[in-house]
Amino acid sequence: MKFFLYIFQLVFFFSFDNSFASYIDSKSSQDQESLDIVFYNIDLKVDPKKKIISGNTIITFVLYQKVKNIEIDLLKNYTVSGTSINGTSLAFEQKNDKVYILKTGLKLFKEHSLEIKYVGKPPVSKSPPWEAGIIWDEDSNGNHWVGIACQSKGGHIWFPSKSNPNDKAEGAEIKITVPKPLKVVSNGLLKSIEPSSGYWHTWVWETNYPISSYNINFTIGDFKEVKRTGYILDKPLKMIFYTLSNDTNKDIELLKSAEEYLSFYAGLFGQYPWIQEKFGIVQTPYWGMEHQTAIAYGNNHKKTNLGYDFLLFHEIGHEWWGNFLSVYDWADFWIHEGINTYAEALYIEKKYNLETSINFIKTNFESNIQNKKPIIAQPNSGIDVFTDNDVYYKGAYLLHTLRYIIGKEILIESLKEFLYIPKEHSNNQTTTSEFVTLIEMNSKKELSWFFDQYWNNAKLPILNIKENIIKNKKFIDIWWEDDGFKMPIVINYNSFDGLREKELELSNNPKKIVIPKSSELIIDPESWVLFEKKAYK
Ligand SMILES: [Zn+2]
Questions:
Q1: Cα–Cα dist 215/150, whole Å
Q2: Which domains does the chain have, with CATH numbers?
Q3: Which of 272, 313, 271 is CA-nearest to residue 295?
Q4: Could you tell me the distance, in angstroms and rounded to a whole number, from the CA of residue 288 to the centre of ligand 1?
Q5: Of 185, 129, 189, whose CA–CA distance to 314 is shortest?
Q6: For residue 449, which of 457, 441, 38, 31 has the smallest C-alpha distance?
């Protein structure tokens, strides 16, 4: 649900002047922007034999401005057979993955109920979860096993909704009818299983927490339920793993690992956001996705060489970073993936030590950084603009670099605060500029030189080094090439009386240092800073 909270603009507008505009434009049309989603009631029959879905979605919405048409996203794969608002049937038009309900004159600032009936074949994903679509699979016993991957396009690949990330609903009811004895797993709490006629039954799930449309999801399979009550910051949490496996030992172990990871995140970032509902994992025919309270898991209990289940750990982190706190515009997607990825380095630091974590950052993050595009995209970008993994690895590494400037304590406290501070947009939908403002306030530092360089430029800053050897000494000039960049940097070298280490304040003007000819200058020995070296002789 999206309100424009002007009051926050007044009290929360930026204390430092920086170059990050607040992205209030949207690629949605003005008509769609005027409509504010309150709730989705999805009622669908999924027929895995015919590979067809059919049913209706009721969208409760508030209208904030007069519109020409009510405009909803739904793939053109589906045929709409009827639409109505507040019980009255209305004419509609289907065009380019949109449904237009030709109605003006609805009352403003009041809730309305739009029903869309439809039937069709969802697109099949060839590469889930990256490519959006349905996965019609079978388990080893020949039972249907069905998943749907929709982050990259949005919920409208299977139900009428707004695909723009800027309008979370207040909640959703997901009613899915499938052939018996298949089960359906979805968001929130299971309200009922309705045995309709002999062959079919209906699983009714409901969540009453704000939720992005791409996070509304279902998985169908012949699942067993492995349950456990976890304790997160001393509060009980209902944990369920819907699995195809008979190996309950491994399955209960997975829930124990999940409890450990949840406790780690809660310790750093505050309580598990959906404690009143559940923590759910469902075994999927694809690798994974962070569906709120119903994580898609297809990692087969695989652990990294540091002894944890990467996929489970990563998707759990998204319950805070991406699901509870969400971007208002995909342009700022690094907030979901970069912060969540850095949390993994923090976990390794806690489990082992800082040295192991830095090695992990170097081997896992640095080697994957491409520097081809800025990690912030143009406003109103689609999520598909991110063709490499820089929002993950560069985003994470830059938080490590930020930590070097502001310290671990301020960084961690700021990240936690970022989750809970009032935002300009409702339902905890945020922007990079809100992050920058918070970091500058908490660190009491003006950091536009830092964020401009790293967030708005594709290329890394260049550190120039010019060396001159005269007799038994090296005379070295060091300076940053990029205008205004002033990152301090640690150096060390062997002096005549042992190892010397110091931090240099650097700017665009050469800084001179002199070291013995026999010594090698080591710049940034702990690899805190991302930069490129350029040497002159
Ligand atoms: Zn992720």
A1: 8
A2: 28-124+148-207 (2.60.40.1730), 328-456 (1.10.390.10), 462-536 (2.60.40.1840)
A3: 313
A4: 9
A5: 129
A6: 457
Q: What is the mean pLDDT of residues 174-191?
A: 97
Task: Give pLDDT tens digits for 240-287.
Answer: 999 998 888 999 999 999 999 999 999 999 999 999 999 999 999 999
* pLDDT value, residue 27: 63
Q: Residue 433: pLDDT above 90?
A: yes
Half-sphere exposure of 261 (CA within 13 A, CB side): 26
Query: What's the pLDDT at 98?
Result: 96
Rounded (10°) CA dihedral 434, 435, 437, 441:
140
User: What is the 375 CA–ligand 1 centroid distance (Å)?
Assistant: 15
Provide the 3-class DSSP secondary structure of residue 453.
helix
- Is cis: bond before 285, omega within 30 of 0? no
- E strand spans, 361-497: 429-430, 462-470, 473-480, 489-495
Compute, in angstroms, the gap from residue 322 CA to the centroid of ligand 1. 8
The mean pLDDT of 198-219, rounded to a whole number, is 97
| Tokens coding 84 | 């109505």
Residues with CB under 5 A from ligand 1 (ion): 337
Residues 6+ apart with CB under 8 A from 171: 39, 188, 206, 207, 208, 209, 210, 211
How many whole angstroms separate alpha carbon 171 and alpha carbon 507? 51
**For position 3, what pLDDT does the model report?**
41
Q: What is the mean pLDDT of residues 208-226?
A: 97
- Using a cut of 0.90, tell me whether the model's pTM lies above it: yes
Predicted confidence at residue 261, as pLDDT, reads 98
Distance (Å, whole) CA 405 – CA 441: 14
Q: Return the number of other C-beta atoms located less than 10 Å from residue 522's C-beta.
A: 14
How many angstroms does the Cα of residue 68 sit away from the middle of ligand 1? 38
> What is the CA(336)–ligand 1 centre distance, in A?
7
Q: How far apart are CA 350 and CA 526, in angstroms?
A: 18
**How many beta carbons lie within 10 A of that of residue 422, not counting itself?**
12
Work out the burial of residue 300: count CB atoms within 10 Å of its CB; fewer than 13 is exposed, 13-18 middle, 19 or more buried: exposed
SS3 321: strand
Cα 328 to middle of ligand 1, angstroms? 17
For residue 434, how far is its CA from the centre of ligand 1 (angstroms)? Answer: 21
Question: Residue for token digits 């007069």?
Answer: 66
Which stretch of 6-15, 128-137, 215-224, 322-331 has the lowest confidence by average pLDDT?
A: 6-15
Q: What is the pLDDT of residue 196?
A: 67
CA of 526 to the centre of ligand 1 (A): 27
Give the Cα separation of 459 and 297 in Å (integer). 35
Kindly give the interhelix angle for 248-269 and 310-317, rounded to the nearest 10 degrees. Answer: 40
Task: Name the amino acid, one letter, at 162.
Answer: K
Q: Which amino acid is at 452?
A: D
* Range 80-97 average pLDDT: 96
